[in-house]
Amino acid sequence: MKNLLILILLSLFVWGCGGSLNTVNMSPSDRLSYAVKLYNDEDYEQAVNEFSSLVLQYPGNSIVDTAQYYTAMTRYKRKEFILAAYEFSKLIKNMPASKLLPESQYMLADCYYKLSPDFTLDQKYTRSAIKEFQSYIDFFPTGDKVPDAEVKIKELNEKLAHKEYYAAYIYTKLEYYQAAFKYYDNVVEIYHDTQYAPLAMYDKTRLLISRGRNNDALLEIDKFLQKYPSDDHVKEMQDLKSSLEISASK
User: Fold this and answer.
1) How far apart are CA 217 and CA 209, in angstroms?
2) Which residues make Cβ contacts (< 8 Å) with residue 230, sequence separation at least 6?
3) What is the pTM of this model?
4) Element (H, E) at 18
5) CA-to-CA distance for 156 and 129, rounded, in angstroms?
6) CA-CA distance, 18 to 38, in Å (whole number)?
7) CB burial class (10 A; 0-12, 13-18, 19+) of residue 41?
């Protein structure tokens, strides 16, 4: 019986050592340090609880913006990108003087970037990512992540252009030609600096010719040659122009 009691007490001691610390009597800064250690140790479940508690219990303390930032980062590390975006937004909205504002703005955009799906799906998060990356660039033009934000905006715009171009392609296949022309024009007007813009003009030109609209096709070719003189389709477009002009002169 005595041995059993010793065993139980020893088990309770070991369990107590392995569990989380009692943070009730800690100062806010000590609690924050403890929570950051949990975060660095990748104990994200416990860390997010600690950071969230700090935000709630010490709203006017100097450590609250750091706790809020880490609350968001912990969600991000757990791939809970919608929740992370919400937490970063809270810091941006409620703590505009925080030194963590630039990083939070970038991370908000990156949450939406992570949520951006395949081009065939709804692009709500893609557009949100572009908007927030652009806000980062506009508000923090000397920020160290500006080059990365610019690269990601270009990548996301390519995705949106791909979606518009694909819609035009599908409408062409379905013989809904007016809708196809509309989407080809959208690609050129909205996403003129993507790889899909010259491709859209090329496909639109071919479609115009197939519909017997040769004069419109010639106008499209001239615009193409002016805008994209180095494109892979330049030689073919020049040949098409010559052919259409010869046909028109007969």
Assistant:
1) 6
2) none
3) 0.87
4) helix 2-18
5) 8
6) 13
7) exposed
| Signed CA dihedral, 164, 169, 174, 176: sign only | positive
Q: Is pLDDT at 77 greater than 50 in this prediction?
A: yes
Inform me whether the pLDDT recorded for 238 exceeds 60: yes
CA distances from 38 to 74, 76, 149 (A): 10, 15, 30
Smallest CA-to-CA distance from 184 within 159, 211, 212, 164 is with 164
Q: Give the whole-number percent of the chain exceeding pLDDT 70.
A: 91
* 228 touches 235 (CB < 8 A): no
Compute the Cα dihedral for 93, 108, 75, 115 and give only its sign: positive
The answer to whether residues 65 and 100 touch, using CB atoms and an 8 Å cutoff, is yes
Furthest CA-CA distance within the chain: 114
In three-state form (DSSP H/G/I as H, E/B as E, the rest C), the secondary structure along 166-228 is: HHHHHHHHCCCHHHHHHHHHHHHHHCCCCCHHHHHHHHHHHHHHHCCCHHHHHHHHHHHHHHC
Q: Cα–Cα distance between 165 and 167 in angstroms, integer? A: 5
pLDDT, tens digit, 9 for 90 and up, residues 213-224: 999 999 999 999
